[in-house]
Amino acid sequence: MKIRRITLRQKRAVTGLLFILPWFIGFVVYYVRSLILTVQFSLSNVEIMKTGGYQATYTGLSNYRYAILEHARFNQVLVNSLSDILIDIPFIIFFSLFMAILLNSKFKGRSLVRVIFFLPILMGSGAVLESLELATRNIIGGASAMIEELSAGNQINIEYFLNVFEELGLPAVLVDYITGLVSRIFEIVRASSVQIIIFIAALQSIPNSLYECAIIEGATGYETFWKITFPMVSPLILTNVVYTIVDFFVNSQVADLAYEMAFTNYNYGLSAAMSIISTVVICFILAVVSALITRKTFYYN
Fold first, then answer.
1. Helix (H, G, I), strand (E, B) or coil at 106
2. Mean pLDDT in residue range 254-275
3. Per the CB 3.0–4.6 Å rule, which of 190, 197, 261, 298 could disulfide with 271?
4. Smallest Cα–Cα separation from 71: which of 222, 201, 261?
């Protein structure tokens, strides 16, 4: 009986399937059931029974209509979250790639600096996270108070500098973008740790022979970056963008509002509807962004 041999491409496909198999089993067993239950809650009026359990009364799309047309905060919070994405995501990717290139170079204390940039992940839970958030609010509050005092004393006029930027020909949209970016610089740096590590792994996977050939050909650092470094890390740009968008919405005000509706107001149906709406918006954004980035992605074999 003749044994059929599989190709190298098929072997790699089998290896990939085996790699994601544990995640896929957990996804089907746990997440899919929770997702179906969330959709059921969003279409119902859920009441917690005194004897235990719950009772779901089908109400159709009333929760969705209330969230979109009648709720006082949901639309505003959702739009603000989307606008924050437009401001934060490009700079997070740029900052992560820039820091990854610096941390990938050889210098004394490189391991210590890498650990420092990875600390936000290790400190992202429990009392440590609350302490960091409290310190952030105090720092921002102190900086705001100091700016107000300086402005009141006619030492610094913030409006004057903004007007200077506009008179230089910078569009008002760009000035607003920079202003919003600076106001959230701490959160942006703290949200870039995973992306930096992913980009470092991508940079270390680039063959040194490509850089050696570029040096022999007399390529400048600028040309080396755009012809070698950037194309080789472009697949990981898509990975980082997807991760950043999902991570951003998990920790956004939309998630906080849905949590408040469920566990403070005990309106589980409305909370589920808000979660479904935000999930659909996230999936749409991910589909559009993935389609745009994939067109310019270079895959090295």
1. coil
2. 89
3. 261
4. 261
Q: Judge whether 18 and 243 are in contact, CB under 8 Å.
A: no
- How far apart, in Å, are the Cα atoms of 265 and each of 2, 262, 274? 67, 6, 14
- SS3 of 97, please? helix
Q: Which amino acid is at 231?
A: P
Whether 249 contacts 255, CB under 8 Å: yes
Sign of CA pseudo-dihedral 150, 154, 155, 158: positive
How many CB atoms are closer than 10 A to CB 175?
17
Q: What angle do CA 289, 291, 297 make, to 5 degrees?
A: 95
> Which structural domains are found in the chain, ordered by start?
62-125+193-294 (1.10.3720.10)
Task: Identify the pLDDT of residue 21.
Answer: 93
Least Cα distance to 100 among 233, 248, 219 occurs for: 233
